[in-house]
Amino acid sequence: MNKIEHIGIAVKSLSKAVSIYEQLLNTSCYKTETVVSEQVNTAFLKAGDNKVELLEAASEDSAIAKFLEKKGEGIHHIAFAVDDILEEMERLKANGFVLLNDVPKKGADNKMVCFVHPKSTNGVLIEICQEIKWI
């Protein structure tokens, strides 16, 4: 794993949260995106080299809606950048980690992603992500 790629924060209202985090981080939201497969609306902000991803449920039965109902607003996941997501998935499985995906899937911000079950990581949902490179 190369670095923390971003921290994902679940929010009830993306527009309210964007306003708060723009003021907090003294920066503007640089990107919003809907990830249809995950039923989530996202917004990204940068603070130096660090990124924050705000996550709002786009559907009442999405994973984010369930998270918000159970735990409320707050940190949802920590994402780590990797060079080769398939290789990293195999390494994690070989070391006993439980993956929530059998194959990587398209995520937000031009990434292929895979999640590691929080039961494998002391209660923290971990996302590994690889930049999609266009040829």
From TrEMBL:
Q: Which keywords has UniProt assigned to this entry?
A: Isomerase, Metal-binding
Name one molecular function that GO assigns to this entry: methylmalonyl-CoA epimerase activity
Q: Where is the VOC domain?
A: 3-131
InterPro entries the UniProt entry points to: Glyas_Bleomycin-R_OHBP_Dase, MeMalonyl-CoA_epimerase, MMCE/EMCE_epimerase, VOC_core
Primary enzyme class: isomerase
Q: Name one Pfam family in it.
A: Glyoxalase_4
Q: What is its EC number?
A: 5.1.99.1
Please indicate if the UniProt record lists Nucleotide-binding as a keyword: no
Q: Which family does it belong to?
A: Belongs to the methylmalonyl-CoA epimerase family.
| Name of protein | Methylmalonyl-CoA epimerase
Query: Whose protein is this, by species?
Result: Pedobacter changchengzhani
Gene expressing this chain: mce
